[in-house]
């Protein structure tokens, strides 16, 4: 092998293993600020070349103190998951292989793996066979992709072709959402030129109230309609009542999209599948494989029942491209150039198997239940949500004390838990989504929470 190439890879391999080995013992928050990390890097772009090993060493030395231990078992700040070892190893190959996976003829290896992974995912989640799965950058773009297909299709049913006529002078699209949908739904709608959606009432766990949805749909103005539902509220982890909501939406002629950024994989667990009952009758589903499935970043999944609708919204043609009659991977996603995202998804599914994915989901839920029970035992603490999935929201007396507990946890460094505001109260939020979290991690984090709630000085890891 070319020594110039191997030297950089060898150093990266060593430093990557050192980083992973450090996760069990290092404080979770970073030790330096953005400005402090910047001061460790040479601000002047050099005139000449620098060998790859030196570049790797320089970056690692400067950045290590500014890294958050997100891949470790004690990061509960956001629902972002970790990276399973099989997926990480294969992701290294993805970068080494350097395949632009947009065209089937150009990258048959990735296309074969993508086709198989698509079939596995639909089977695992109990979604309609033959649905299209697009591998996009993350949950936001998964929502965007599905809602683009929805927008174009509901307008097409009303005799309007967005591809040729644009949105100006169209009948418009009415989008109905729950009051506690995730903000990325609104963001995707803004990208799509659909504006602010119409919100209907949600219950005390953030679930859409079917009667409120039905009433809103009955009061419609005749415009093409999309209904967005949710599998996993970001605060409570709650799931919308899919059977009733989807039936009402379809009766009104609406397209139904399910935002399942982290909750969609509840369907893979026999003990949690009831949470998603009826969701398979929707028209599209979005999730982020980095979250509950624990593959590396840059891998959202946009799933659309009607393959033709997705291709009509996302596909393009160019005389210089080599098209295959079986259809192109790029016809299911916004990007033409993209990395081989299906490889790490295949790897984690192959490594875990059906039972392993179910155990992964159940483990997250069990840890969340342990957190809830431990927090409830703290004097003055209150768990505010029904802990049915992976989320725990807690308050520690009044808002000021709750915010102080959040700040104390970050200062302690044992675990990362995030502050938020839910239903008019300051809360501390625990999100369990990392394959490497152990019972010992949860116990240590609860001990830190007890210290923080009691106002004791932080001790760190």
Automatic annotation (TrEMBL):
Residues with N6-(pyridoxal phosphate)lysine modification: 291
Biological process per Gene Ontology, one example term: carboxylic acid metabolic process
Cytoplasm keyword on record: no
UniProt keyword annotation of Metal-binding present: no
Keywords on record: Aminotransferase, Decarboxylase, Lyase, Pyridoxal phosphate, Transferase
Domain of life: Bacteria
Cofactor(s), by name: pyridoxal 5'-phosphate
Gene3D superfamilies listed in its UniProt record: Aspartate Aminotransferase, domain 1, Type I PLP-dependent aspartate aminotransferase-like (Major domain)
Pfam family, one: Pyridoxal_deC
Any one GO molecular function term: transaminase activity
Family under the similarity heading: Belongs to the group II decarboxylase family.
Protein name: Aspartate aminotransferase family protein
């Amino acid at each position: 092998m070319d020594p110039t190439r191997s030297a950089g890879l060898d150093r990266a391999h060593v430093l990557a293993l050192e980083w992973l080995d450090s996760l069990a013992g290092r404080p979770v928050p970073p030790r330096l600020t953005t400005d402090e990390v910047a001061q460790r890097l040479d601000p002047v772009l050099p005139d000449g070349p620098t060998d790859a090993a030196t570049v790797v060493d320089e970056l690692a030395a400067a950045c290590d103190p500014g890294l958050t231990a997100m891949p470790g078992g004690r990061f509960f700040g956001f629902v972002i998951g970790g990276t399973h070892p099989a997926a990480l190893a294969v992701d290294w190959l993805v970068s080494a292989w350097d395949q632009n996976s947009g065209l089937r003829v150009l990258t048959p290896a990735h296309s074969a793996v993508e086709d198989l992974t698509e079939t596995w995912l639909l089977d695992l989640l109990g979604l309609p066979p033959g649905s299209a799965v697009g591998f996009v950058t993350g949950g936001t773009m998964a929502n965007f992709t599905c809602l683009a297909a929805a927008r174009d299709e509901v307008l097409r049913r009303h005799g309007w072709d967005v591809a040729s006529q644009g949105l100006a002078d169209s009948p418009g699209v009415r989008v109905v959402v729950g009051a506690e949908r995730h903000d990325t739904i609104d963001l995707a709608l803004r990208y799509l030129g659909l504006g602010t959606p119409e919100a209907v009432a949600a219950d005390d766990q953030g679930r859409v109230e079917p009667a409120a949805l039905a009433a809103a749909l009955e009061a419609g103005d005749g415009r093409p309609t999309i209904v967005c539902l949710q599998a996993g509220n970001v605060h409570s982890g709650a799931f919308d009542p899919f059977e009733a909501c989807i039936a009402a939406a379809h009766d009104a002629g609406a397209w139904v999209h399910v935002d399942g950024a982290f909750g969609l994989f509840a369907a893979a667990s026999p003990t949690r599948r009831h949470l998603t009952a009826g969701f398979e009758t929707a028209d599209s589903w979005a999730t982020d494989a980095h979250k509950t499935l624990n593959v590396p970043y840059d891998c959202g999944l946009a799933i659309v029942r009607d393959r033709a609708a997705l291709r009509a919204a996302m596909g393009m043609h160019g005389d210089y491209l080599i098209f295959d009659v079986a259809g192109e991977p790029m016809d299911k996603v916004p990007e033409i150039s993209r990395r081989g995202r299906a490889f790490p998804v295949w790897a984690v599914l192959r490594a875990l198997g059906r039972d392993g994915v179910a155990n992964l989901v159940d483990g997250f839920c069990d840890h969340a239940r342990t957190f809830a029970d431990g927090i409830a035992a703290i004097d003055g603490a209150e768990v505010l949500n029904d802990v049915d999935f992976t989320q725990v929201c807690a308050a520690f007396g009044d808002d000021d004390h709750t915010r102080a507990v959040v700040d104390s946890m970050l200062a302690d460094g044992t675990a990362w838990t995030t502050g938020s505001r839910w239903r008019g109260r300051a809360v501390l939020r625990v999100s369990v989504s990392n394959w490497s979290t152990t019972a010992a991690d949860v116990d240590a984090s609860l001990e830190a929470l007890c210290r923080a709630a009691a106002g004791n000085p932080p001790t760190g890891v």
